[in-house]
Structure prediction request, 108 residues.
Amino acid sequence: MGRSILITGAAGFIGFHAALALVKQGDSVIGVDDFNDYYDPALKRLRQKKLQEKGVEIIEGDICDTPLIKNLLKKRSISHLLHLAAQAGVRASKKQTEKYVHTNLQGF
Prediction:
């Protein structure tokens, strides 16, 4: 029997490919993503659709939403957590410092 894995940042490039690989090897995968607009949200929605077609449940939410994450870990019997969510872009972090602190530090 496979593992039950929660992936944060599941609609991002790495999260998307990790989810596909884990499902292919027999794991159950639930993804969380906030679908922010740093990268094209339409691309992330396309990835969401492809993941859902492979049986991956995608939950739209903020990784700093403690009740959401606690609920997922508890009620979904998550055995593993693959944390890939982050606000990317070093240059942009100087302009939107609060957003980066929120996701990259508090979310971690």
About this structure: The two ends are 29 Å apart (CA to CA). Strands lie at 4-8, 28-33, 57-60, 80-83.
